[in-house]
Amino acid sequence: MTRVIGLTGGIASGKSTVSGMLKKLGACIIDADAIAHELAEPGKAVFEAYLAHFGSGVLTAEGRLDRRAVAEQVFSCPEEKQWMDRTAFPLILAEVRRQLAEAKASGGPLIVLDVPLLFEAGWDSLADESWLVYVPESEQLRRLCLRDNCTAEQALGRIRAQMPLAEKLSRADAAIDNSGTIEATRSIVKDLWKERVHEQFA
Ligand code: ADP
Prior knowledge:
Blueprint: E1 3-9, H1 15-25, E2 28-31, H2 32-39, H3 45-54, H4 67-75, H5 78-106, E3 110-114, H6 118-121, E4 129-134, H7 137-148, H8 152-160, H9 165-171, E5 174-177, H10 182-201
Helix pairs in contact: 1-10, 2-5, 3-5, 7-8
The structure holds adenosine-5'-diphosphate (ADP).
């Protein structure tokens, strides 16, 4: 049977990097962020829900969703955040479930559910096991500032808004230390693949 792994990690810990490595090894990747973006395209379900709820004030001049305007609405008011959680998340979850069923039917060795807030959203229940990519917070901060060109203060705000690393570590079935080189991480990922995926098929 195809195994389903929930892959997560704090922002800029290297989740996308590891997801790319697993893809090269033959995993089918279901990317929750990509699905969320896709559904926010004009005419798609999340786009239509936001437009109906907030009105055309959340559109850019080109008629696309203005993410900043949506964020302003949603994060300035707890009720709007609740509305978004009740509305957008189920739409995204429905598409994740659809892609999961499709991937299971096509029968590869491993499906990776790539979800930044896997534990926070409770979507780890969709997976057979959860893998966490992690680095110490000081390195997470350094990589986040470097990648997103933001200040340490902004980066820290984004890191602290997520579930603490210690809690994620206690929930994960496997922890991938990404504080070394990319090659070191690739070797950890290959070992995990051999141990948890390949042997199921041997
Ligand atoms: P996430 O998907 O968890 O937000 P990314 O995979 O985008 O994180 O990694 C965050 C940043 O750190 C990227 O710029 C990436 O190139 C870099 N990075 C990832 N792994 C390593 C590593 N082992 N050593 C150095 N830089 C890394």
